[in-house]
Design brief:
The complex is a heterotrimer of chains A (307), B (407) and C (301). Chain A is an all-alpha fold and 307 residues long. Helices cover 71% and strands 1% of the residues of chain A. Chain A is built from 15 helices and 2 strands. In chain A, a hairpin with a 2-residue loop joins strand 1 and strand 2. The radius of gyration of chain A is 25 Å and the shape is globular. The two termini of chain A are 24 Å apart. Chain B folds into 2 domains: 179 residues, D-Maltodextrin-Binding Protein, domain 2, CATH 3.40.190; 203 residues, 3-Layer(aba) Sandwich (D-Maltodextrin-Binding Protein, domain 2), CATH 3.40.190. Chain B is built from 15 helices and 15 strands. In chain B, strands 1, 2, 3, 6, 14 and 15 form a 6-stranded mixed β-sheet that branches. A 3-stranded antiparallel β-sheet of chain B has the order 12-7-13. A two-stranded antiparallel sheet of chain B has the order 4-5. In chain B, strand 10 and strand 11 form a beta hairpin. Chain B is globular and about 70 Å long. Chain C has a single domain, classed as MetI-like (MetI-like fold, Orthogonal Bundle). In chain C, a hairpin with a 7-residue loop joins strand 1 and strand 2. In chain C, strands 1-2 form a two-stranded antiparallel sheet. With 301 residues, chain C is mostly helical. The chains are: A mainly alpha (307), B alpha+beta (407), C mainly alpha (301). Chains in contact: A-B, A-C, B-C. The interface between A and C is large, with 104 and 120 residues.
Amino acid sequence: MSSLSASSRSRRAWWQRLALPAVLILISLVFIAPIAWMGATSIKPESQALEGGLRPLPRIERDGGGLGVTQPDYWRGVAASAGATYRDVLTSPFADFVAYLRNSLIVAALSVVGMVVSCSVVAYGLSRIRWQGRGVLFLITLATMMIPATVLMAPQFILFKHLGWIGTYRPLWVPAWLGGAFGIFLMRQFFLGIPRELDEAARLDGCSHPRIFVSIILPLARPALAVVALFQFTASWNDFVLPLIVLNHEHEYTLGVGLYMFVSKHGSTPWNQVMAASVLAILPVLVLFLLTQRAFVEGIATRGLKD
Amino acid sequence: MLYWEKWTGREGAAIQRVIDRYNESQHHAWVHRVSIADLPAKAMVAIGGGDPPDLVGLFSFNVPHYAEARAVMAMDEFARSDEFDLDRYAPHVRDILTHEGRAWGGINTCSTSALFFNRTHLREIGLDAPPRTLDAFDEAAAALTVTDATGRIQRAGFLQTLPGWWPYLWALIFDCPLYDPATHRAIIADDRAIAAMHWVQETARRLGVGATRAFSGAFPRTYHSAQDPFISERVSMILQGPWLSAFIREHNPALDWGCVPMPLPADAPEPHLARGMVEGDVLMIPRGCPHPEEAFDFLLFTQLRENQELLAKVHGKGSPMREISDSFREGHTNPEVTVFDAIARSHRARILPQTRIWKQYADMVMSAFDAVWGGESPESALLLVERRAQQLLDLDSRRNAAHGPNA
Amino acid sequence: MTSADRPIRVRRVHPWLLGVAWTSPWLVGLVVFLAVPVLLSLIYGFTEYSLIEPPIPVGAANYREMLGDGLFWRVLANTLLYTVLAVGIGTVLSLGIAVALEQRVPGSDLVRAVVFLPTVVPVVAASLAWAWMFSAESGLINTLLAHVGIRGPDWLGDGRWAMLSVVIVGLWGIGSQVVIYAAALRDVPRQLYDAAAIDGATPIGRFFRITLPQISPTVLFNVVMSIIWSIQVFAAPLIMTKGGPDNATLVYSLYVYRNAFEYGRMGYASALAWVQFLVALILTGMALWLGRRLVHYRGAS
């Protein structure tokens, strides 16, 4: 595509050259606005949050007058206002966000480890062992990506009830230890890209499959493992439907459900607190994303690859 | 013992006082209260999933659903069930607690709804209290409404969309029973309910659908705050439960207000008897819970008159008991509690349909109300609701028949 | 992996057994967490089941009931409306953004990250943030509109706008589609553009004659995936509108949820879920059929 612009750049008028950056800036603003506004609301006192208006920062009044942003006292005031909101959220009688954070972390950690282990083992079976049925299994795996998750909401609940898992974390992480379609797909594509000569040489030396898997394939597949781990972490962290139906006790809630219950339990909606709680919920994934942005984006891009 | 309760805030603190009393009164059991959002759905899922708490605090309209599904234990299933005495309760409360001839839980305060009015506003049009008939009431409401040049509502005299969570109440005011338990028939496409919806539609027509939606949409969907339409004095009259009195005291103590029963159509029979619905909060014991007998002991404790009166006082509600103690009205937080009490004891007041499909039925009435407000014909909207509700009721009868009588 | 250090000399292990052994976690997972629930729901779909009482067989009554259930048709129509809007607008929008990103102006990597960011935001937080943005009186959107002299609607309280609001929340998450399109755009052979440049084609002509046919398999993939995503939309309407006003945003999954977990009708919910699955199959089938006629596979022409 770069050739498209290169060949015509010289002929473009100035407004044409500015149009594209302007559009990109506008796009970024639209996409960042909800998160930015969430952050801005979370540091305001409740009364100012409800006023609306476009001020991104709270108004801090002292002795009848508003302080300007250049005054150090202003920032002290902002910090105090933000601190008050976040303290209210963390000590709220309606929710225990510290516990929710911990629960979400436990569930995410268990499911990430399970997903990475199981997907890499299964992908090895799908890419390194020639057996009848592996093509069919791969097709079935792809087809399961086409089942809308909410279709399984009621039937999975019935299954978990029969297993006696309602009110436990098991429904949230045990299935991950048995693999997931997207992770297996991604890992298999990656394994297929590893030269076969490597393991064939090893096999001639008498290495077993587990040995090859552990000492040759896995070390080479680190980037793919990382991508699967990242995606599983976000999927688990962001899961809402399943925890909503299987978790019963408040101290067991994960962040999504806890946040939802916090809002529905509150009589009125103290938007500053709700936004502050939301900030707490998105912060971990946000940081993770900023650190690993490339891996994320490249991982998603491979999803569009045709087999 | 784990006790799930929907109450939070002041109401949560009140039940906690009762729990504390209980925990101090004996040494073999300890009640731990957890407040849960969305409790009716959550509790059913937990019981169905085999992981129930020992006690759940639900709404009166949940009783039939939970009773028929055998999700809770009947009061006659306990070793000391003879200590549970239905005759101690006011008549409507007795009806709330019983289904299919058995009692399924204890009461945890009951309430009715009355018309709150802003006395200062009414004086502007030369009235001391709202008129007793609907025609005169509508006129007063129109006179109290203030709109600006563009048709935007600044203040409403009365709006049926506020607070907006019990549209079936208008049918009850017009004496439509909604349901006949003897024949299992849904009754909502009948003349009385249709008249009620026409009356509702008249307001929408007079003030404009868009203007009323914009006005009511701006309020938070709860009464707990200073932004409540009545507390913030942007609505002069509102049909509300007794708890509103406590929130007025908290957020706008200077407000001069009073309560009367809702005005009635001119041709209403026995117009001296107040209409309204009696609802209650109920305390039930889930089937399959870890400590049923201990839970029952706590339940009995909460049913003592002094504990129910304590809760009622804090909530601003009337007493659910048949006999009211002499000291009940003293120091009651709601100055108009006698109005609510009178409605609760009127035999023209009703309880909500005692059927497990009520939640679904109510959801349908809710959307029919929205549709009527938007201009759809009440006849056709209500007929749709009645047909579907009857279908569900028939299905329910078949299900009950399959499970045999009171398994 | 206990056998890792013990070299297996038994090369005679049948490859089929070996393959099944390596893929066994997934085989178990497929059966237990997919096949069994799907089968269970097929069975329960023919019963009346309240979760607590034992299920009562009712034959095809649930499916017959659906035909006469006005709300079933309503939620089906709502979900299809959502799907058409989300997939239609989403495809045009994400293609447009991808093309803009691939012009490679300085900073486009940053824009790409910003556009992708919402896809990692938990759906509850996203719905709450948008509910706050859509708030009629003090929300950011109506405040901005007021600045240019427009009185914004009551987005979530007005039936005519509520569905669009929910769709907008969905569109906020098109980042992954954008990234997939951007990758596909990069793969279009440059020679094709150079040839077109000689022919003097306009940029728009080039897009429709070269780019779109070249990336059409990716378009098909994205359309199919977003159809599946749209059919299961659940959390945003639950959190933002609870399906209201007047059921305007009551979507299919929300109705299934209510029947299963609020009305105590697991049997009816199971039947509803099966129909939802069939609808998803039909829609993807239609998309794939259309795709077969329109999609240009490289080297095929």
